[in-house]
Structure formats: structure tokens, C-alpha cells
Amino acid sequence: MMKLYHSTRSPYVRKAMIAIHEAGLAHEVLLETMRVSPSRDNPALFAVNPLGKLPTLVLDDGTAIFDSTVIVHYLDVVRGDGHLHPDDPDARFQAMRDHAIGEGLMGLVVDWYSEKFRDPAADTNERFRLYDLRVRLTLDELETQASRLADTRFNIAHIAIACALGYLDFRFDDLDWRAGRPALAELGDHLNARPSVAATKPYDDI
Fold this sequence. Notes:
alpha+beta, 55% helix, 8% strand
């Protein structure tokens, strides 16, 4: 059995979980669920990943793989059929570009939530205003690309975008990211209906 160090809250872990479902490997992966914090020692995780970050995938032979993008690549290309990474060079480059914006949005909202959680009273300062601006601008950019993405075969970019939008629903329901973005809203609904995405919806557990 492989082991995935896991959290039901993390959109990065969700990327790995979607890839696990896409590759049909759910029955081969043991989930080690834990909460990770920059201020909390976690010896079990440090023993396999000196960075102390989720997700970490430990293979059957004890090899540990870090970083959600690397884990998705391994699960899809090495253990799966490779459908998440297009063979055509131009298509793969486009998927990588689209993945970068989804991953970037994910990083913004995770960092924003972490700072809000540490200091809710700071939500009105300039730093938080810039988080809001960058998130909205990124969502506006995704709105311009949403119809094209909807017509593109499901790939690594769709995973990152689904996880970013899902985290907005999970932690920023007051932002109402769908308002004024009908194409992106439709894309989000389409992604949420995919079995691998529906099966990995974030929630608070521990």
C-alpha cells in the first residue's frame, strides 16, 4: 500500500486525491490524516518529509514524494494512463499555463485564509485588500478562459482550478466568486460533477 499524508481541508492534498481517483488507485492508498501548522511540531510527517508539508506520498518501497504537482504527475504518468498530461507538446504547454493560474489562485486563497485565521481584525488593511484584488483579477482572467477550458479534455489544469474554486466555496463563501462570471460558474459546476472531484470535497474533520 502507498500512504498519503492527508488533510480534508487542504486543496493541495485534494489535488493528489483527485489524481488518485482518476488513476483508479483509491484502494491502493492508505490515508494518514493529520493537521499541519507552521507552529506545530509533527514528528510523524518530518520523518518522511523534512519540509513538513502536505501532501506527502510514500510509495510501497518507502520512497517519499513531495509537492502536489509532482505527486499528481507520478500518479498519472507512472501509475495511471497519463490522461492528465497531454501528449501533444502544444496541448501540454497550454495545460501547464492553465495549471499555473489555478495553482496561483490556490496559493493566494490559502495564504489569505491563513492570515485571516491568525488575525481576523486585520481584514481591512492594505495587505488584505491586495489579496482581494489579486483573487478577483485572477477569477476575471479565468472567466475569459472558462469556455475554452470547458471544451478541453480534463487535465492537470482542471484539477488545480477545481481545487482553487472549491477552497473559495469552503473558506470564502462571502466572496461570491460566481457573481458576474457565468462561464466560470458553469465550468465550476461542470468540474464539481466529475466523480473524482465530487468525491474529494473539502470539509473540517479534526
